[in-house]
Each structure stands twice: as structure tokens, then as C-alpha cells.
Amino acid sequence: MVKIHPIPALTVNPSRAAEITCVPYDIVSRAESRALAQNHPDTLLRVDRADLEFPDSVKFNAPEVYQKAAQNFSHLIENGSLLKETKPSIYLVRMVEGKHRQRGFAALADFGDYASGQLRKHEFTRPDKEDDRVTLIRHLGALTGPVLAAYPDLPELTAQMDKIESTEKPLAEVTDERGVQHTVWRCPDAAEIVKLFTQVSRSYIADGHHRAAAAARLAKEKVGPLGI
């Protein structure tokens, strides 16, 4: 069975969503990150890729880069761009591009599933990239990049998605620069989602092997209540 947990999350202020959201940190170069962050002081790229704020002579993993990331993260909390949820929750996330629709749940995965292979990997990871994410997580005290996992279809989970979409008010909506519409709902019954996932045999990491490995290293070291 697959074990998931509600997230003690920071969520995006709906009025600031377009300013904060950004592309994944690892699909853009430093130069591309600078261009994307230009005129966007509160983009999350300034947290996930704080090296964009330094000249190329400064290495991506220099201590001052992580210190700057932590400062930028604190700024987003202090100015109300990121809001602390009142209790741990699970979220429904939907992306729509043209006729294509993709949905999933945002939750914490279980370290035991990762360690046992219940959450399956299919890529090797590079130590330097793992170290980068471990150091960033330590400085932030938070995970800012999701790990995308796939699971065999379970009709009951799909029914929950349909129900949430049709009955709950979205927490936030934003359309990115590629025209993809992102919508997030808070699941009203997280316990039911957790229970249904125990009927899923296993899950598979689709993207985010380095983020998963970094989180697992910290979980193994028992540095705070971190999940994947």
C-alpha cells in the first residue's frame, strides 16, 4: 500500500500567484533564470535558484547563495505572498493546456515507502545535485520543489477528484507563460484521501529524483519533520 500524509503547508496568496509561480528550477540555466526573474522580485525562482542574483563567478552552491535563498523565502512569508495554513492538508492540483487535462494530489510521501522501494525510482542521481537540494532545504526549513509521482488508476481517487472540482472553491488559479492553467483546491477530507491511497499497490517517481533523494537523506538523519 502507498502511505501519504497531509502537508503542513505554505500556500500561495491568490492575489500574488502570477508573481510567485515559476518554472522548475532545473530546466533553466542561470542566464535564463535571470531573464525570467527580471522585474519579478517575488518569483520563487529567487528561492529555488538564488544563484541568479550573483555574478557567474560565484558558484551555484556557494554559502552566500543559500543564505540569499533563505532571505528571499523569509521575505515572501513576511510580505504575505506565502500564507501558512492553519492545519496540515492535502491538495488537488489540476493543469489544463488546450484539450489536455492532468490532475493529482499534493501530499507528503512516506520515507518508509522511499526506503523500501514502494515508491519506485528509475534514475540515478548525482551527489552534487543532491547536496545542493539538501543544503537548500536545511537553510529554508521547507521543501519548495515537488516530487511528481504516478500511481495505478484507482476509480475511488478519481471520483474524489471529480467531487472536489465540482463542489469546492479553488484555493488559487493562475495561467503560466506557456498558457497552462494551474488550479489548486484544498481537499476537505484529507483522511479519506490517505485511506484510499492504502489501496494503491505502489507509486513511481516520474520527476524529481534529486529532490526526493535530498528529502530522504534529511528524513534519514531525522532533521525535523520532513517528508518527500
- Strand order, sheet with most strands: 5-4-10-9
What is the number of independent domains?
1
Q: How much is the average pLDDT?
A: 94
Low-confidence stretches: 223-228
Distance N terminus to C terminus?
Answer: 17 Å
Number of helices: 9
Helix content: 25-40%
Strand content: 15-25%
Radius of gyration (Å): 18 Å
SSE-based structural type: alpha+beta
Taken from the alpha-carbon principal axes, the silhouette is: globular
Largest sheet: 4 strands, antiparallel
Assembly state: single chain
Give the topology string: H per helix, E per strand: EEHHHHEEEEHEHEHEEHEH
Number of strands: 11
Helices, strands, pairings?
Blueprint: E1 4-5, E2 10-12, H1 17-20, H2 30-37, H3 45-48, H4 63-78, E3 82-84, E4 91-97, E5 100-106, E6 108-109, H5 111-116, E7 119-120, H6 127-140, E8 148-150, H7 155-167, E9 172-175, E10 181-186, H8 190-197, E11 203-207, H9 209-220
Parallel strand pairs: 7-11
Antiparallel strand pairs: 1-6, 2-3, 4-5, 4-10, 8-11, 9-10
Give an account of the 3D structure.
By secondary structure, this protein is an alpha+beta fold. It has helices at about 15-20, 30-35, 45-50, 65-80, 110-115, 125-140, 155-165, 190-195, 210-220; strands at about 5, 10, 80-85, 90-95, 100-105, 110, 120, 150, 170-175, 180-185, 205. The strands form 4 sheets. Strands 5-4-10-9 form a 4-stranded antiparallel β-sheet, covered by helices on one side. The chain has a 3-stranded mixed β-sheet with strand order 7-11-8. A two-stranded antiparallel ribbon has the order 1-6. Strand 4 and strand 5 form a beta hairpin. Helix 4 (about 65-80) packs across helix 6 and helix 6 crosses helix 9 (about 210-220). The longest helix has 16 residues, at about 65-80. The protein is globular and about 50 Å long. The relative contact order is 0.21. Residues about 225-228 have low confidence and may be disordered.
